[in-house]
Amino acid sequence: MSDYTISVIGRKIKAQRKELGMTINDVAASANVSKGLVSKIENGRTVPSLPVLISLLKALRVKLDDFFSDIYFEPPQQYIHIKAADYSDIDKEEESEGFRYQLIGSKSLKCSSFELVLLTLSPGSKRAPVITDAWEVKFMIKGSATYQIGDSEILLEEGDSLLFNARVPHVPINNTNEDVVMLVGYLYDSE
């Protein structure tokens, strides 16, 4: 089990305990475990055995399936960068000629809304990194730009695409002497 998953389990147990107004002692007594063990689990320093986890969840009045509904084995990927040369052809219609479909990228989401915009970045354009409550899809139509997402920098060139969690601070930077044009899609989900 990854450190990420262990940390998420601990944080969820702690959040539920606090939501119920319970102390570590209350949970430990109800689950028949030591308060030291509860503290270690909440702080991601140990992995509870299955019987202990079930006892803790019962003490916290949480259903097992509800508890694990949003826990992943690895942290969600912050972005997907695909070079134009790496797009894969897909067959969508058997009886068509001259139609070429290329899979740019995909992400399963429960979207409540979608926006599609055309963005032009002038040379020397400036903006501080922003956070958007959505996933964003970028497709470079013209030019190249550096995309800063958190601590990562990705060079996007004409034909490249980028899909990322826009809840991470991000900003495109045009370091060229020409306009950069990109198609931008916003996928608003329930995360």
Description of the molecule:
With 191 residues, the chain is α+β, with helices and mostly antiparallel strands. It folds into two domains: 3-68, lambda repressor-like DNA-binding domains (434 Repressor (Amino-terminal Domain), Orthogonal Bundle); 79-189, Sandwich (Jelly Rolls). It contains five helices and ten strands. The strands form three sheets. The protein has a five-stranded antiparallel β-sheet, with no helix packed on it. Strands 7-6-9 form a three-stranded antiparallel β-sheet, with no helix packed on it. Strand 6 (145-149) and strand 7 (152-156) form a beta hairpin. Helix 2 (24-31) packs across helix 3 and helix 2 crosses helix 4 (50-59). It is elongated. The mean pLDDT is 81.
Task: Give the helices and strands, then pairings.
Blueprint: H1 3-19, H2 24-31, H3 35-42, H4 50-59, H5 64-68, E1 79-82, E2 88-90, E3 101-103, E4 111-121, E5 135-142, E6 145-149, E7 152-156, E8 161-165, E9 170-173, E10 180-189
Antiparallel strand pairs: 1-8, 2-3, 4-10, 5-8, 5-10, 6-7, 6-9
Helix pairs in contact: 2-3, 2-4
